[in-house]
Amino acid sequence: MKKIIFSLLILLSISTAASFAQCGDDLLKQALKEMASSQYIKDFTVELLKDKKDTKTGYVKYSIVLNNRSQYKFNIVNGASNPEQIILQIYQGDDLKASNMHNGKLYNEFEFICGKTGVYNLLFSFKGGTEGCAKAVQSLVKQFSE
Length: 146
Hints:
- The protein is α+β, with helices and mostly antiparallel strands.
- It has a single domain (about 25-145), classed as Jelly Rolls (Sandwich), CATH 2.60.120.
- The protein is built from two helices and ten strands, in the order H-H-E-E-E-E-E-E-E-E-E-E.
- It has a four-stranded antiparallel β-sheet with strand order 1-10-3-8.
- The model is unreliable at about 5-10 and about 10-20 (pLDDT under 50).
């Protein structure tokens, strides 16, 4: 009986480790590759897990500073086992400035030209409040002169 329980624990730990591995460096490497020739600034890890009591997972929020007259690119890579694709929204205060969702379609990358230097919030969530993981990379495409 002890052997069976021990074997089950080993299988459970291996399957748990495999599920976390899919949200690791491989996703980041893919996101970095997709940013092409733009200049890397920062990467973001999103892991939303449901609490047993919750019906939805919610969101992850990061605060960043964006500069006026700068064109930024955001690349998003979803985990292989995600039931839905991740949604990235950029807010300045309560104003939605940009998103990877346009006309109901989700994109793996989008660009944003900042019109005002300030603190912006990146809000990551899954459609329907499901759980999952993703990586995103922020990069600089171009800075415009005055």
